[in-house]
Amino acid sequence: MTPCNPSQSSFCSLGTSTATVDAPPKKRGTLSRLSWATSASRVAAFLEAHPKVERAGYPSLDSHPQHAVAERILPRGSGGIIALEVAGGVEGGKRFCDSLDLAWVATSLGGAHTLVGHAASTSHRPMDPEARRRAGIADGLVRVSIGLEDVDDLIEDFDRALEKV
């Protein structure tokens, strides 16, 4: 492990990530809300088109039932949270999450790092499968919180993981 420089140390003492400061150029993200929403929109479009994704939910997608509302009230983008239903049910959702290299599996969403959570094996695990379905929680539902990583790197990571489903 390399020692931190004074700037990195101060970031760490504040609990913030220095990943975008000392990452190689291709791995750097930006901190603006607009680029965050743009990254999420690109990832959502990729996911929606992938054959191993049964459904992608993101308000900026034309297919989203509230797309027109999102366009009106969120003119700068729909934020960084995406929902997707991975083919293969519970096992497909778990395999996808476990196969990611860049994104982290977490039970919470939000932060500087891209986080994913498979609902049926984390937040909604106590529910029986039928109760989950009645509540609209598909067995392959994965929630994604886009972080500050390079969007092309995220798409590559998601593509690699989906190929293992």
Short description:
The chain contains seven helices and five strands, in the order H-H-H-E-H-E-H-E-E-H-E-H.
Would you write up a description of this structure?
Helix 3 packs parallel to helix 7 (151-163) and helix 5 (89-99) packs across helix 7 (151-163). The termini are far apart. Residues 12-25 have low confidence and may be disordered. The chain is of the alpha+beta class and 165 residues long. Strands 1-2-5-4-3 form a 5-stranded mixed beta sheet, with helices on one face. The chain is 40% helix and 13% strand. It has 7 helices and 5 strands. The protein has helices spanning 6-13, 19-22, 33-49, 67-73, 89-99, 129-134, 151-163, and strands at residues 53-57, 81-86, 104-105, 115-118, 141-145. The longest helix is centred in the N-terminal third of the chain and has 17 residues, at 33-49. It has one domain: Aspartate Aminotransferase, domain 1 (Alpha-Beta Complex), CATH 3.90.1150.10.
**Which CATH C-level class is it?**
Alpha Beta
Number of domains: 1
The string of secondary-structure elements, in order, is: HHHEHEHEEHEH
Enumerate how many helices there are, as a single number: 7
Task: Describe this protein with a few key phrases.
alpha+beta; 40% helix; single chain; Aspartate Aminotransferase, domain 1; 165 residues; globular; 5 strands; 5-stranded mixed beta sheet
